[in-house]
Amino acid sequence: MTEPTSEDERVAGIRQVWTEGDYRRIASLFSPVSERLAVELDVAGRQVLDAATGTGNTAIAMARAGAEVEAFDLTPLMLERARERARAEHVQVRFREGDLTAIPFPDASFDLVVSTFGAFLCDDPAACARELVRVCRPGGRIVSTAWTGEGVIGSLRKATEARYPQLAMADPSHEAHLAWGDPDRLPGLFDECDVEVHLEHREVWFPFGSSEDALEVFETTSGPVMRLRAAIIGAGLDWDAIRGDLVREWDAMAVQTAAGVELPSTYAVAFVERRS
Question: Superfamily assignment of 6-160+168-207+264-274 in CATH?
C-alpha cells in the first residue's frame, strides 16, 4: 500500500475534525450572520462564491436572496448536509469539493466571494487570502468573518489557556486565526494583492436553555470542542474545572429570556475590495 503524502494527511486531518460530532447544531447558531450579510450585500443577480460552506448557511442565504451561488468545502459530509438543506429549502446552489488553498474555480469568476467562519481557520492564511482574491473579479468584493477572543466562542479557548497555558504554546495556528479579526494584522494577509481592507466587529447572540445547556451542546456536537476536551482529559488535566469556569463566565454574560438565556459572541467581518 502506498504511504500517504503529507498533503493527504493534512486533508484527512481537516476532514476528521469536521466530521466528528454533529456540526449542524453549532452551525445553526451562526445562521443569523449569513442572513445579515445576504441582506446588506445586496446580492440579487450577482455571482457569489461561498468558500468553505460547511453546512451551507451562507450559500443558502445568498441563493434565497436571489444570487447565483457556487459553494465548496473540503469535507464531503459537510457538503452532503449542505445539499440536503438546499433541496429542502428549494434553492439552487452548485456545491463541489475544494480546498481554500487551491480554490477550484478560474481567475475572476465571481462578483462576491464570501467565507463565514471558514477562511480564518485555514492552515495557510496568506495562501487562502490570495486564492479568495484570485477568484474575485476586479472591482468585486471578498467578505470573510472570523471569531474574535470575546464572548462564548473566544472564552472556550481563554478558559483553557488560563488553566493550562502549555496547551496554548502547543497550538501555533491560533495566532494566525486571530489575524483575521485584528485590524493591525489583517492587511498583512493580503500583502501580495491589490486590495483595500476594512474590518468591523459585530456581535451575535446564541439562544439556549441555560449556560450549562450551551456547554453541553458544544461538548457533544462541535468537533473542535470535542477534540479539545479529549486532549485535556488525555493529558491527565481537569476538564471539569474548565467547565466550571466557563459556566460561571457564561452566566455572567447571559441575558435572560422567556425561553432561557441568550449568550453573546463577538466576530469580525473583513470587507476586502479588489481594485479594478
Answer: Vaccinia Virus protein VP39 (3.40.50.150)
